[in-house]
Design goal:
The complex is a heterodimer of chains A (about 110) and B (about 120).
Chain A (H helix, E strand, L loop, with lengths): L2 E3 L4 E5 L4 E3 L2 E3 L5 E8 L6 E7 L7 E2 L2 E6 L4 E6 L8 E9 L5 E2 L3 E6 L1
Parallel strand pairs in A: 2-12
Antiparallel strand pairs in A: 1-4, 3-9, 5-6, 5-10, 7-8, 8-9, 10-11, 10-12
Chain B lengths: L4 E3 L2 E4 L5 E6 L6 E8 L3 E9 L2 E4 L8 E7 L2 E6 L8 E8 L10 E2 L3 E5 L1
Parallel strand pairs in B: 2-11
Antiparallel strand pairs in B: 1-3, 3-8, 4-5, 4-9, 5-6, 7-8, 9-10, 9-11
Classes of the chains: A mainly beta (about 110), B mainly beta (about 120).
């Protein structure tokens, strides 16, 4: 079975500081994609960043970057220079092969002014 | 493009009533997904369609749940009869499954269902 585990139900960070959200996954597929989605209070699911498993280079999108450790099946999200608008639920997701996305339970991030 | 459209945005109903949630995927997208989100279980995939054909409905919790996709631009998720434990946010999502690379999956705004 494909699983995604987010071990931190809640995290907090000071504005302008850096925070890292953890994610581990389990898949038997060799070809897969990994994602981080953001869900603000509006409920809208917003894609933050994605990583192709065959790429060794970690993906980066402005203040968001990932640390992809394929052997350890780890995919953490780093948010630099945190802003108040970053406060949200963050979901890690895995798409193994041709199957649909599998989501973790989420991490609620609070940003303290 | 208006994105994935869901209606209604909020639904409050009484136990035993039939509930129909609606979704219009992004034009040109040929995969459609229905998810349910609760505090306890997180985001669960209920069913997904490729080219209007249901591919996997193993996530549908009970026979009370049914989903249809009569054409490429419309899908429904029906609960009959509804129960209080069905209260959740229901998301529809769509993506284009063409090409060799993975295409982004876009989510609708969700329908918050409350069953009293």
């Amino acid at each position: 079975a494909q699983t995604v585990t987010q071990s931190q139900p809640e995290m907090s960070v000071q504005e302008a500081e850096t925070v890292t959200l953890s994610c581990t996954y389990d898949t038997s597929e060799s070809d897969y994609y990994l994602f981080w989605y953001k869900q603000p209070p509006s409920r809208q699911m917003i894609l933050v960043i994605r990583q192709e498993a065959y790429k060794q280079q970690n993906a980066t999108e402005n203040r968001f970057s990932v640390n992809f450790q394929k052997a350890a099946k780890s995919f953490s999200l780093k948010i630099s220079d945190s802003q108040l608008g970053d406060a949200a639920m963050y979901f890690c997701a895995n798409k193994p092969g041709n199957t649909p996305l599998v989501f973790g339970k989420g991490t609620r991030l609070s940003v303290i002014a | 493009d208006a994105g994935v459209i869901q209606s209604p945005r909020h639904e409050v109903t009484e136990m035993g009533q039939e509930v129909t949630l609606r979704c219009k995927p992004i034009s040109g997208h040929n995969s459609l997904f229905w998810y349910r989100q609760t505090m306890m279980r997180g985001l669960e995939l209920l069913i997904y369609f490729n080219n209007n054909v249901p591919i996997d409905d193993s996530g549908m919790p009970e026979d009370r749940f049914s989903a249809k996709m009569p054409n490429a631009s419309f899908s429904t998720l029906k609960i009959q009869p509804s129960e209080p434990r069905d209260s959740a946010v229901y998301f529809c999502a769509s993506r284009s499954a063409t090409g060799n690379s993975y295409n982004e999956q876009f989510f609708g705004p969700g329908t918050r269902l409350t069953v009293l």
